[in-house]
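Example 346.
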Amino acid sequence: MKDPALGTDFVSAGMVNAVTVDGGKVTVALDLTTPACPSKDVITKSVKDAVGALPGVTAVDVKLGAKLWGRPNHPSNPRLPGVKNIIAVAAGKGGVGKSTVSTNLAAALSRLGAKVGILDADVYGPSVPQMMGEPTQTAGVQSGNKIVPAVHHGMSVISVGFFVERGGAVIWRGPMVHKLLQQFIEDVEWGELDYLVVDLPPGTSDAQLTLAQAVPISGTVLVTTPQEVALADVAKALAMLKRMSVPVIGVVENMNGFACSHCGEVTEIFGRGGGERFAREHDIEFLGGIPLDVTVRQGGDVGVPAVAQREPGPAAQALTALAQTVAARMSVRAASRDQQPVLTIS
Ligand code: ADP
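Predicted structure in complex with adenosine-5'-diphosphate:
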């Protein structure tokens, strides 16, 4: 039996944790590569079917755990050693839902059982503090000048918004922004994290370049809305990432339709299909669409991400599916990197 994402059999991939046999009852414990694995049901069924078909087996129990695969820590960029995967979220321009995707992607991964942090690097428009609501622990500075992240919805969060007055503008020149971002990477006690979601500034600014160079990004999710003016800008962001050799996971199309809560009719306010076309033309994966949904905007305003709401709206499902797809792609990347030969130049 093969893991559907890795294409490798469970035994070779080292995912079989234990097999116990008690009379006719067999229990198989598997360690998935991420707690956000989108194929849990498929895997459970395939193991049950295969083991159940063996002679003498009367019952099969499948226990799924997770041992997260991550990037190998590389001596050439030893930053963030405790972070297994760094997911950047980028957009060509403001207002397309980049911070919404960042916060919901992070919250969905956390709700699926991963240890998650958010680095809000959108220095000139930090919306993560607003979108995450009141923290259970505020950010602060420890002795030794280490910055302790805030805790929101069980996640470690750092944002420039914590260090400027609410409503105040960040009027900083490039070198100050550079220094701040460097501190967010080097001086924050991130601890051990499965995923660090980095909300990049929109466009192709200095701050984006700083981050792309300083952080060993494992993969980037591009966010766009379907209309042409947004697609033209996201193409520039993609070109910059490619030029900097930053890995891109794919593109997500936000606000791709609005379903009327009264009559159910879907209106495609910004069009539809632009993100998918963009993905095809640029040979990257289309990661799916997220509909316009009033609970997303409401949640963003009051600090409860759509995926964490008690009565989730139609976008929450799409955002959780996005998080699962991204987690699966990160596992595949981690696996293929492990198999890459290591070159030592002496
Ligand atoms: P960006 O980070 O790209 O500037 P934001 O994530 O701040 O964009 O989103 C801009 C506004 O649009 C916010 O008020 C947010 O709540 C809202 N928004 C984003 N995506 C959706 C969606 N799918 N449905 C409804 N509102 C959305």
